[in-house]
Specification:
The protein is mostly helical. The chain has 15 helices and no strands. Helix 2 packs parallel to helix 4, helix 5 packs antiparallel against helix 6 and helix 8 packs antiparallel against helix 12. The chain is globular and about 60 Å long. The N and C termini lie far apart (42 Å). 61% of the residues are buried.
Length: 421
């Protein structure tokens, strides 16, 4: 049998791709609806102002991030010490139960702000285990020479799901608030089955050190590998400042006046742009000057965020969201490939969990930051200021992490020095 020439020719990778597509469709759609309901309840039932309701969206992001922060070391260790399929399947199953609970609460009219915040925190607790487990499986299934294409194709799964999930959730929310949650629960049930169908079993490495030391070793590895540290923290600080997604309910209802359906389209627009770019990268992945291209992509992300924040035109807003999504896809593709290929397999779960923590911090803490600034400047000022901040961060990182600019290819760099003791 001839060796595969593309990652999609590998059965287990196709199952990973499908599991990612299903779970992201479900969870991103669910997050959009939780945010929309939080904003609407704050405005209608509590009589909050636009700025106060936007601040509640920031607190919602914080509620998701705190458990993510606390459980990240445990999630990475489990991904390196247990069957990664089972870790991902159990966490996806927990998300399914949360979606069911939210659907039932809406169906029976028992939805409230405290309940939404509790569900958001539990969702953050479950999600922290999914990313490291699934990400760490892929390099065991796909040969190293096919990994860049695998990352690009995986990004297509994520981004296409992030288009379909929010758009569908917005339309279902307009019909009945319980429907998007029941839809997510059904999708997540299929995701559990798909993960368990993966045949590849990477044997857990023998635990020769105490668990706390193993967790610390993963953090130390990233800290001492400046190349990896630059990759992870660039996204952390740029998206922390430049994230606009938390404010989308405020833009949909009070700035652009496009309602639930418009909110679904706004939330799907970044993923639509990212999906187109990811599809191109799946055919022609970036291979040269990868570090510099990552930096330029983050700068474009910031510029598009700035224009979106100042826009009062729905078509222009959609276009800017699509552009920032496409730029983010380039950044994610380069960063994920560099992290996977520059991490030894026995540490992939822990390093992936740290990368996931940075992503969560940039998203959820970015929502908190946007909420705080929106309480002072309003949602328009918060998003515009954040976009300008992302551009500044990119310029600073280009100076303090010259290793990123010197990264011409995806060739593993840690092996040239070996991990720090």
């Amino acid at each position: 049998m001839s060796a595969p020439t593309h990652s999609l020719q590998i059965r287990d990778y196709r199952l990973i791709w499908l599991a990612r597509f299903i779970s992201v469709s479900a969870t991103v759609g669910m997050v959009v609806v939780i945010g929309a309901q939080t904003y609407r309840i704050a405005r209608v039932d509590y009589g909050y102002s636009e700025a106060e309701a936007a601040f509640m969206l920031g607190l919602l992001g914080l509620a998701q991030f705190i458990p993510f922060l606390l459980l990240t070391p445990v999630a990475g260790l489990l991904a390196d010490r247990m069957d990664r399929r089972h870790v991902g399947a159990v966490a996806t199953g927990v998300d399914m139960l949360l979606a069911l609970a939210l659907g039932i609460a809406n169906y029976t009219g028992q939805i409230s702000l405290p309940f939404l915040f509790i569900m958001a925190a539990l969702y953050g607790s479950a999600r922290v285990f999914i990313g490291p487990a699934i990400s760490a499986i892929t390099p065991n299934v796909v040969p190293a020479e096919l990994l860049p294409k695998a990352v690009a194709v995986s990004s297509i799964a994520w981004q296409s799901a992030a288009v379909i999930g929010p758009a569908l959730a917005g339309f279902l929310l307009a019909a009945d608030p319980a429907l998007p949650y029941f839809n997510s629960a059904a999708l997540l049930a299929v995701g559990v089955v798909t993960l368990l169908a993966i045949r590849h079993r990477a044997p857990p490495a023998a635990a020769k050190e105490p668990p706390l030391k193993l967790m610390a070793d993963g953090a130390k590895f990233v800290w001492h590998e400046r190349f990896l540290l630059g990759c992870v923290t660039l996204d952390l600080f740029a998206v922390l400042l430049g994230g606009a997604t938390a404010m989308l309910p405020a833009f949909a209802y009070d700035v652009l006046h496009v309602g639930d359906e418009g909110l679904g389209l706004l939330r799907a627009a970044p993923a639509a742009g990212a999906m187109l770019v990811a599809a191109w990268l799946g055919v022609k992945p970036i291979a040269r000057n990868v570090g510099a291209k990552m930096l330029w992509a983050v700068a474009v992300f910031g510029a598009a965020t700035l224009v979106f924040g100042l826009s009062t035109s729905f078509p222009l807003s959609l276009a800017m969201l699509a552009l920032l999504g496409g730029a983010d896809a380039v950044s994610v593709f380069v960063r994920n490939t560099l992290v996977q290929l520059n991490t030894p397999d026995e540490m992939r779960g822990r390093v992936s969990s740290i990368s996931g923590l940075a992503i969560s911090a940039s998203n959820e803490l970015g929502e908190m930051q946007s909420g705080l600034v929106a309480a002072i400047l309003g949602p328009v000022g918060a998003v515009a200021l954040g976009g300008a901040g992302a551009i500044v961060v990119t310029a600073i990182w280009a100076v303090i992490f010259p290793e990123l600019i010197r990264a011409k290819t995806f060739a593993p760099q840690y092996r040239q020095r070996g991990p720090s003791p």
